[in-house]
Amino acid sequence: MRKMIKTTILTILFLTLAASTALFAYLHFFAADDSGLSGEWTAELNLTEQAAVSAYSWLQEIEGVSFSLEEMESYTPKLTVEVNLSFAQTDDSAGTFVCKVSPESYEACSQAAYAALAAAFHDLLAKRLSMAGYAGGTDEGAIEALVTETFGMSTEAYLQSYGPKLLPSLEELQAQYDGGGSYEKTDDILTRRFEEDGTVVTKTEIYIRQDESLILMGETDADSSDLSSDEYPVVYTLRQSTQ
To answer: What is the spatial distance between Cα 52 and Cα 112, in angstroms, rounded to a whole number?
Structure first.
């Protein structure tokens, strides 16, 4: 079962990477726009597939009830976390930037993810109890009352405390995206220098500015098999007129 889940995850990552790379290549060769970067930009990190696969894997522990990844996906709404990126150009090819993950957006995304898992958990638990000859009610309210009585907390609270990790932690996302400093751009390469407490970390990305969209994609090693999130294009949308 775990081998199947691993294969499913890798297939999703491969298809997502292939589609993203094709779009990136098209924009790079046919639709590039060398407009300035100044302004406020917003990206929505899509964590839907990751949450659905993690929830599905955990629900497999409920024995005797057939359940598929497609069914888990039907419970899962679109789950996104907002990242805000601002640029202030000081000349044609340089300036300063600030990037920040929205904690409020993350909290809403996390709550929605666990609400979806709770709904699926309720339905599977109701089926399992019915199969076992349980004589009590198995509607949503009755199952919630049963969980609360058994664990001393609501289903969502229980899953958040003892269930699977559905999303990267806020701290993990902040470590990857948060920060500020200076930047330079040359041709289609954007170099950002994250500066904090006297330490400078440099991140080099391929970028494309197209109308109201800014696409950033980390440079990758062609010989590497690592499918880290930095290899996927992150699409930012301009939120105000350029300065």
So the answer is: 12
Query: Residue 240 carries which DSSP code?
Result: S
Identify whether 243 is part of a domain.
Answer: no
Number of domains comprising the chain: 1
Phi, psi of 47 (to 5 degrees): -110, 15
Are the C-beta atoms of 236 and 213 separated by less than 8 Å?
yes
Is there a contact between 182 and 96 (Cβ–Cβ < 8 Å)? yes
Give the burial class of 70: count Cβ atoms within 10 A of its Cβ; 0-12 exposed, 13-18 middle, 19 or more buried. Answer: exposed
In a domain, 95, yes or no: yes
Structure tokens at 119: 């709904």
State which residues form the domain around 222. 2-238
Residue 36's pLDDT band (boundaries 50, 70, 90)? Answer: confident
pTM beyond cutoff 0.70? yes
Distance from C-alpha of 231 to C-alpha of 23, rounded to nearest angstrom = 13
Statement: residue 28 has pLDDT above 70: no
